[in-house]
Amino acid sequence: MAKGDRIAVIGGGLIGTSWAALFMAWGHDVALFEHDETSRKAIPRAIRGPIGQVAELASGLPAPGRLHLADSLEDAVTGAAWIQENVPEKVPLKRAIYAAIETAAPAGVTIASSTSSLVWSELSADMADPSRLITAHPFNPPHLMPLVEMFGPDAARVQAAAAFYRSLGRHPVFLRREAVGHIANRLSSALWREAVNMVAEGIADVDQIDAALVHGPGLRWSVVGAHMAYHLGGGAGGIGHYLSHLGPSQERRWQDLGQPRLDAATCARLVDGIAAEAGGRDIATLEALRDAGLIAVQRALREKRP
Amino acid sequence: MAKGDRIAVIGGGLIGTSWAALFMAWGHDVALFEHDETSRKAIPRAIRGPIGQVAELASGLPAPGRLHLADSLEDAVTGAAWIQENVPEKVPLKRAIYAAIETAAPAGVTIASSTSSLVWSELSADMADPSRLITAHPFNPPHLMPLVEMFGPDAARVQAAAAFYRSLGRHPVFLRREAVGHIANRLSSALWREAVNMVAEGIADVDQIDAALVHGPGLRWSVVGAHMAYHLGGGAGGIGHYLSHLGPSQERRWQDLGQPRLDAATCARLVDGIAAEAGGRDIATLEALRDAGLIAVQRALREKRP
């Protein structure tokens, strides 16, 4: 991406708008297409806060890029040097969007899909040049969360995309093969299953489980990953020692984890538990606290992770 | 706990030494009993660093308390106002220790077990006064991690213990009923199972999985818990909207998670993966980076969590 190159953002929901804020904060002009007119009109106002948040996290940013609200997909992608797709998670819809992009966009420009729940092989099946497509899944909200999970069959294209995301302060990671939920949402689902299980089984309340995570493993995992944590928990012998001495007890512990259902009774407990944890604070208030926390942690951790 | 009261720490391994450092940094005198003489002699030197780290996290600390290396369990607990037990995770050993404590310690003083993998009912079975025992599981290392997970049948005693831990800058959470692994290790095990599964299945390498966690969900969970994260990810309708619209897809996602074994091939992949992630850095270097990160995040997050 050279200076002055235009980025097309297709789909202006939460994810698309957040990506657009990130691109603009780093000086790129953005052409954004959102088919719903009410949503589209709200974007210029909604994007101001996120652009300001990026500036809290990064120093030495250039002047923000400009936003062009495109009238059509073709208008957005014509002349684009990068295309980030964020339309709803429906295979036929995304395939139709890629066909339209292949017709209108410059040949060879990368199409990066933000898909969270679909995989490359499903999405690329009808493309004239499937190698143009990569999956590049951000963690919500993309302008505050550094993670971008990447997969594509063309290694050089994936590496070039990673370099672009790194230039925006992102931290790309790479899958060896495609998987539903990529990496992070698989980890999140696995943890939340047990969090739900403990509520369903009456082991602990919602707010206590959240507090245990935030002041325990979540705090640790903001600094070191789960594998590395076991390496450092194994004493001088590291993970090799851990696996040989405590591997069997870990396997027994796995057997003790639950397989909850999200039935009506469990859902009611979750809703009531969140109400108790929120303590009357509305979602906007909680989101603002979350965002301030995410910014504070990232500022604190610069250069401090193993 | 009044000023000048003495705390008995039974077992001077990693956990006992870290607790002792925390107690001393907050001005309490500690009587520590460790039966292994070589280990016992190393403690006065090993404890200096952790005491200094507590001071990096807390302001307004009093002058540190004194350390008495006790010659016997009886010496340690005689006159103690609080007893924190950290001996190896063996039921007969812990039961024998509690019997000795009940004979030698002042009547009614709380015995708090740091057990990570045993539960209250197993541990208390032979006690003259089982109500004296609580489980108070810290997250390693206790002097840097705020979490203490608590369970006991005597609600007033548990609440008094929680007040004591809060006075040391800890964040106690409460189980409604005892559970193997309490809360945090159940969450950790559940997440690590899928992290191992992705390595075993060749979806991603160890270092990429750790990076995805640290820059994605781990970062988020240092600020907001897993339940709250779904509340904030559900739009204006919160977790109720999330559960009714995406509950079924979450249940399908749970079905797609793996059930790995820690067999020789998977263990070899984990060990090799950690070696690649460590990149030649030894455990002491990585631990120092971890500790600096944990301190930095907690300083940054004061007053910033929802």
UniProtKB/TrEMBL annotation, chains A, B:
Residues 181-249 form the 3-hydroxyacyl-CoA dehydrogenase C-terminal domain. It comes from the Bacteria. InterPro entries: 3-OHacyl-CoA_DH, 3-OHacyl-CoA_DH_NAD-bd, 3HC_DH_C, 6-PGluconate_DH-like_C_sf, 6PGD_dom2, NAD(P)-bd_dom_sf. Keywords: Membrane, Oxidoreductase, Transmembrane, Transmembrane helix. The chain crosses the membrane at residues 7-26. It holds the Pfam family 3HCDH. Residues 7-175 form the 3-hydroxyacyl-CoA dehydrogenase NAD binding domain. PANTHER family: 3-HYDROXYACYL-COA DEHYDROGENASE FAMILY PROTEIN, 3-HYDROXYBUTYRYL-COA DEHYDROGENASE. This is Hydroxyacyl-CoA dehydrogenase. It comes from Paracoccus acridae. The lineage of its organism: Bacteria, Pseudomonadati, Pseudomonadota, Alphaproteobacteria, Rhodobacterales.
